[in-house]
Amino acid sequence: MTQPNGADDGGFRAQLAAAVARLTQAGVADAPRDARLLMAHALDLPVTRLGIDAPARLTPAQQARLAELIARRASRQPISQIIGRRAFWKHDFHVTPDTLDPRPETETLVQAALRLDWSSVLDLGTGTGAILISLLAERPQAGGLGTDISDAALAVARGNAARLGVKADFTRADWFDGVTGRFDLIVSNPPYIALSEMAALSPEVREFEPHGALTDFGDGLSAYRRIAAGAARHLTPNGAVLVEIGWQQGQAVARLFAEAGASVRVLPDLDGRDRVIEAHFGPDPVKTA
Ligand code: GLN
Hints:
This protein has helices spanning 12-25, 31-42, 50-53, 60-74, 79-83, 107-114, 130-138, 151-163, 203-208, 211-214, 222-234, 250-259, 285-288; strands at residues 85-88, 91-94, 120-124, 143-148, 169-172, 183-188, 235-244, 262-268, 274-281. It is an alpha/beta fold. The protein folds into two domains: 12-75; 97-280, Vaccinia Virus protein VP39 (Rossmann fold), CATH 3.40.50.150. Helix 6 packs parallel to helix 7 and helix 11 (222-234) packs parallel to helix 12. The structure holds glutamine. Substrate binds at residues 189-192. Residues 108-194 form the Methyltransferase small domain. One of its GO terms (molecular function) is nucleic acid binding.
């Protein structure tokens, strides 16, 4: 954060102010918050200790580290990718450019899953593994399988499970293509942004998150078509599906699962917007016939 006038700029306050100014200029929405987070990261401090433990002056190495972090954020890279982790539900998850950044609204799905009775769970398109690992951490007796079409994402998910001490299986699959067996619960936060909506996303999402995790390159509903079509064949009798949806997709996705034979509810997130489809499939017709 060298100042053009060559002033003595190594002080903590001057460095922080310069970082806020740079991020503000770059159009970052909450520049003061992000500057503090990255300052804390540069100093290896928890952000809650920044006001207490920060040194009066930064060493040249700390200044260089901060400058690099601020430059990345000014390019609009998401904070989670810069610091490599994101808090979700009760844990911190390692996040990379190969994985969707876990979002708070997805906790609605976790909450809904924990109201149901299940001892096996399949997470389609697991990404960081945030949903699956959060669920299995709450139900240590249960078993779970996470799939992804991206090997790089699977590596991140496996690492997260190991680091958090959660036992889960992971395998490469294209929705149900590559999945064998039946599960009491199927969960997914699939790519649901229509290709036509991609241009309107913030640069953080559009330029840095993996497009294959965001959009189906179509109308935003194709993953739900695949999941609805294959669900009954991969559920135990009376099994359920929980999928995250875009807030305007409630009706369309509810219809897809109703047409597949399920009874369906639409659940809101904490902002009151449609966010999760809960679909219950009846007893396996082969077994009850
Ligand atoms: N909720 C994400 C967003 O709006 C999209 C995630 C997804 O497509 N599953 O950026």
